[in-house]
Write a structure and sequence with these properties.
The protein is α/β, with parallel strands linked by helices and 383 residues long. The chain has three domains: 98 residues, 3-Layer(aba) Sandwich (Rossmann fold), CATH 3.40.50; 58 residues, ATP-grasp fold, A domain (Dna Ligase, domain 1, 2-Layer Sandwich), CATH 3.30.1490.20; 181 residues, 2-Layer Sandwich (D-amino Acid Aminotransferase, Chain A, domain 1). The protein contains 14 helices and 15 strands.
Length: 383
């Protein structure tokens, strides 16, 4: 089997490369960055510099020409930008390679926070109270009626997030990200949870769930440490949403468990492979491999059980940045090195990507400090 992956600079691309490569699958990786961690994995047989999918519309044409000239069995787009560019020309691409991807209408809903929340409300999935301002005047009016803290989110999957603790702050921060068509939401206090699934034309074929233990930024962001769990209520909420969308391919449905009610509240749908993919693989649900097998064979046997209580840690940069911005957890940060339940994204048999990550962590730290977005880049919600 020959598989092509995009976005070699992402940690979950590396997880997919290792998963597939360890099974003897020939893996090729694209990235716009010459120093991409997946390029340095021993499981990456070929790599190539490509246009940046989030910035350059030529990425789709580049991809089409590449799969025309080089035979691949499966294409796995990793980033949201790559997913949307692939979706735009999927009918051309599918003449040359299999693409396990949801259809354009479903992606359109999942890729927009505004449309996701509206769709979830319609089918009875719990959501935060949400406002949809179209102008700065709308936002100013909404600022007078919301409870604080409030959240301002860019509507697109890659959009910005800001927290506001007063009407003046909300209006100011709305203006900062107005070009991303933001929505305004009530702030849900609670822990972050994820429901992850692989679908075959509306039928769930694999599923997994996790709880975030630490994240960066500490006010809400990608997992630094997460734990595999199984929760029937979380499962049912995730399935309800993806079933209704007649989903195909992989997706993550992100929730918060409301501290006040104990109920799961929808945050967003991630219509692609996700940052905490390594935990699912370590727990026994190998989404990259299962996705490729489904694409080639037409279907797979369902995978609905996995090991719970597995903890996974992304040390560079996420957990290191978490402890630097939340030093109170330093004792736990240190003791976790001796916790036998914790797995790392560090593979001593494939160490070169980690060496690259260490250097990139230092560079990322300096850049974030310079741009004043290291400590609390989204702001701080005062609850």
């Amino acid at each position: 089997m020959k598989v092509l992956l995009t976005d070699g600079n992402f940690k979950h691309t590396l997880a997919a490369v290792r998963s597939l490569g360890k099974r003897g699958i020939e893996v090729t990786v694209l990235s716009h960055l010459p120093i991409s961690i997946s390029f340095y994995s021993k499981y990456c047989q070929h790599h190539l510099i490509a246009p940046a999918p989030e910035k350059d519309l030529r990425f789709a044409d580049f991809l089409l020409e590449y799969v025309k000239k080089n035979q691949f069995d499966v294409l796995l787009p990793i980033s949201f930008a790559a997913v949307m560019q692939v979706s735009r020309i999927r009918h051309e691409l599918e003449k040359f390679v299999k693409i396990p991807l949801a259809d354009a209408p479903s992606l359109g809903i999942a890729g927009s926070k505004e449309r996701t929340i509206q769709y979830a409300e319609k089918i009875g999935v719990r959501t935060p109270k949400t406002w949809y301002p179209k102008t700065e005047s709308d936002a100013d009016a909404i600022a007078q009626e919301v409870s604080y803290p409030a959240v301002i989110k860019g509507s697109e999957e890659s959009g910005f997030v800001r927290y506001a603790n007063s009407p003046e702050e909300l209006s100011e921060k709305f203006r900062m990200i107005a070009r991303y068509s933001p929505v305004i939401q009530e702030y849900i206090t609670g822990e972050g949870y994820g429901f992850f699934a692989l679908y075959n034309h509306g039928n769930a074929r694999a599923m997994f769930m996790h709880k975030r233990i630490r994240e960066y930024p500490v006010t809400g962001g990608p997992s630094a440490v997460a734990e595999s769990i199984y929760d029937p209520e979380l499962r049912d909420a995730g399935l309800k949403l993806l079933d209704a969308l007649h989903w195909h391919g992989v997706a993550m449905v992100e929730f918060k468990k409301d501290k006040n009610t104990g109920k799961f509240v929808l945050m967003e749908i991630n219509p692609k492979l996700w940052g905490s993919l390594g935990l699912a693989i370590a727990s026994g649900v190998d989404f990259p491999y299962l996705t490729c097998r489904m694409a080639i064979d037409g279907d797979i046997d369902p995978v609905c059980t996995y090991q719970t209580g597995v903890k996974f840690r992304w040390l560079f940069p996420a957990d290191l940045f978490h402890v630097m911005t939340n030093p109170r957890i330093m004792p736990q940060f240190i003791s976790d090195f001796w916790d036998p339940a914790i797995r790392f994204d560090i593979d001593i048999h494939d160490i070169r990507p980690t060496i690259i990550q260490v250097g990139m962590t230092a560079a990322e730290f300096l850049l974030r400090v310079k741009q004043k977005r290291f400590w609390r880049p989204h702001g701080r919600p005062y609850c």
